[in-house]
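User: quick one, sequence for these tokens?
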């Protein structure tokens, strides 16, 4: 190992502009080694051994966009609301298959609990490094999933 990863506090200090050891970029990655050639995998594994990540990055389990009525861990539990059901191509939601406002109004007001244990399944062991949780999907992505791009833009406009 050519360099020792920052501790949690050193990483916080670096983020806040007070580096204590080395003026460096925080190292972390989401590269899926299994999707690279064996040669690239070996080179990256050596790089990671020499320069370990300064932070532990991991995904939070995200709620499903669509589910069945009564599902606790989904955003929309309206029967047959999923516009992907029956589609033969893997494409984004468009205005032809997006859910209507009538369906949208049926979505349960009981959203997934952000403090629920479901979100934290599979967290890595705490090893003293800075931990950064990653949750894809924000409010824009959610409405796009429901309404499609054209409808979403028009909804915002109107």
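Assistant:
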């Amino acid at each position: 190992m050519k360099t020792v990863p920052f501790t949690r506090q050193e990483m916080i200090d670096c983020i806040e502009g007070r580096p204590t050891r080395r003026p460096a970029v925080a190292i972390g990655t989401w590269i899926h080694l299994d999707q690279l050639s064996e040669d690239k995998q070996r080179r990256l594994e050596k790089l990671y051994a020499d320069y370990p990540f300064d932070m532990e990055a991991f995904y939070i389990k995200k709620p499903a966009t669509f589910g069945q009525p009564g599902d606790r861990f989904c955003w929309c539990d309206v029967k047959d609301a999923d516009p992907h059901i029956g589609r033969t191509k893997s494409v984004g939601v468009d205005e032809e298959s997006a859910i209507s406002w009538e369906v949208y109004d049926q979505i349960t007001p009981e959203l997934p609990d952000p403090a629920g244990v479901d979100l934290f399944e599979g967290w890595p062991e705490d090893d003293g490094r800075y931990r950064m949780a990653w949750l894809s999907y924000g409010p824009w992505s959610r409405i796009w999933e429901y309404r499609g791009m054209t409808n979403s833009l028009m909804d915002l406009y109107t």
